[in-house]
Write a structure and sequence with these properties.
alpha+beta, heme, 2 domains, iron, Cytochrome p450, monooxygenase, metal-binding, Cyt_P450_sf, binds protoporphyrin IX containing FE, two-stranded antiparallel sheet, 226 residues
């Protein structure tokens, strides 16, 4: 969705991939540090639309909403505590308001806009520190999730142009940045067009599909042997 809405962000990320990775292979996780704009696009995705649901700009106490009756992964204070001068009695339900953190205008200017350069060029605080929760109950899948998100994004950008789709009469179907209700923050259904970027991209896509088939065959052999 974000790429169809922001073609200039997409073009910049693709130019970076073309320069650093070329079109002989797909981007890999090892390329992460050499692709700062692509990484910034991923961070901006997690900031602009954090996966957690709680969505309010009320911050009382800052960054924490206490005794809320909705939101993702509520936690409880195991003992009396204090946070920035606010007393939190034991057993209080606490839900980190990740949306408020990610859309705090004093930290992320034009917070509702999609601006990856805030991470790659402006030194904004790394939103990946919050997107997966906090402390000892933070997401244990964080590393695998981030690696997967980066590789999926980078390989898609390397091989496809994502644009707004057109209807049967050729009229552009506008994309609306809307979300589904529910615990997990997912985009509402939307239509985009994915076109391979070149013959080389088509070849890479075919080769990677063949490669994954080989991998799954190897995994099958491995599980049969056991
Ligand atoms: C983009 C992908 C993902 C996102 C955005 C995400 C985000 C989160 C968040 C925000 C929490 C709540 C943390 C908290 O309450 O402080 C969480 C918890 C959790 N996540 Fe993920 N997660 C992702 C992928 C994964 C994956 C791939 C795994 C497993 C391999 C995983 C396993 C878990 C588990 C088990 C918990 C509960 C931890 C606990 O309560 O101690 N997650 N995740």
């Amino acid at each position: 969705m974000a790429m169809a809405l922001h073609p200039q962000v997409q073009a910049k990320a693709q130019a970076e991939i073309d320069k650093v990775v070329g079109n002989e292979r797909l981007p890999r996780i090892e390329d992460r540090e050499s692709l700062p704009h692509v990484l910034a696009v991923m961070k901006e995705m997690f900031r602009w639309q954090p996966s957690v649901r709680l969505r309010t700009r009320v911050r009382f106490p800052p960054a924490l909403t206490s005794d809320a009756d909705y939101g993702l992964v509520p936690h409880a204070a195991s003992k009396d505590d204090e946070y920035q001068g606010y007393f939190i009695p034991a057993k209080t339900t606490l839900i980190a308001n990740v949306w408020a953190i990610m859309h705090d205008e004093s930290v992320y200017h034009d917070a509702d806009k999609f601006i990856p350069e805030r991470f790659s060029e402006e030194g904004a605080p790394d939103c990946l520190d919050y997107a997966f929760g906090f402390g000892r109950r933070g997401c244990p899948g964080v590393l695998v999730a981030q690696a997967h998100a980066f590789v999926s994004m980078a390989t898609t950008l390397a091989t496809f142009n994502i644009t707004k789709a057109r209807d049967a009469r050729g009229k552009i179907i506008e994309v609306k940045a809307e979300n589904t209700p529910g615990t997990v923050n997912a985009p509402a259904p939307f239509k985009v067009s994915l076109q391979p970027r070149s013959e080389a991209a088509v070849d890479l896509i075919h080769r990677s599909v063949e490669h994954s088939k080989t991998l799954s065959e190897r995994l099958e052999v491995f599980s049969l042997d056991e």
